[in-house]
Design brief:
With 187 residues, the protein is of the alpha/beta class. It has one domain: Maf protein, CATH 3.90.950. 33% of the residues lie in helices and 25% in strands. The chain contains 6 helices and 6 strands. The site of inosine 5'-triphosphate (ITT) has 19 residues, from strand 3 and helix 3.
Amino acid sequence: MKTVYFITSNEGKLKEAKTKLLGVDIEVVQKNLGYPEIQANALEDVAYFGVKHIQEKFNHPFILEDAGLFIDILDGFPGVYSAYVFYTVGCSGILKLLDGVNIDKRKACFRSVFAYGAPGKNPKFFIGECNGRISNREQGDHGFGYDPIFIPNGDTRTFAQMDTEEKNRFSHRGKSLEKLSEFFKKL
Ligand code: ITT
């Protein structure tokens, strides 16, 4: 079985990746090396520079992921600033920003960009998106981050009211991991 290191500090992402890649002959091992998340307009750029940074000091195949929540009525905010915004004002801060906004105007999209890096190779990217809406209160205690306030299209529950397998069936990360898993099968 091959090992691929997942460069992340986020245990929730790790659990989702391990669950999704169960059927693939790859062992996913967390490596919390950290990398600078550059100020950029796109998640792809953040992931690209992350790969370049890790490749300089880490001599094994690895994956990393940058994800973000893009809210329509806020012109895509928090988007590439999702981590900072979560750390500073959290889900309650987002709910305050949307106070009084009607349900049909609470559309949002989660995006996930996985990057695969290996010594001496150009990075490969795997992208997934999930459309949905921001709920008007926090619900559920599974998952992490903005899960308690995001309801994917096709369901009435937030991600935080789903277990890992269910979330993966809907989510941006489930979709990008599906593509990554096809890539691993051919590796
Ligand atoms: P890394 O170490 O992998 O970078 P992170 O938690 O900093 O972990 P990101 O920068 O990719 O991850 O995520 C940006 C923010 O969006 C962060 O606050 C996450 O909690 C949140 N987020 C990302 N994916 C999410 C998901 O599936 N559900 C809820 N919130 C999510």
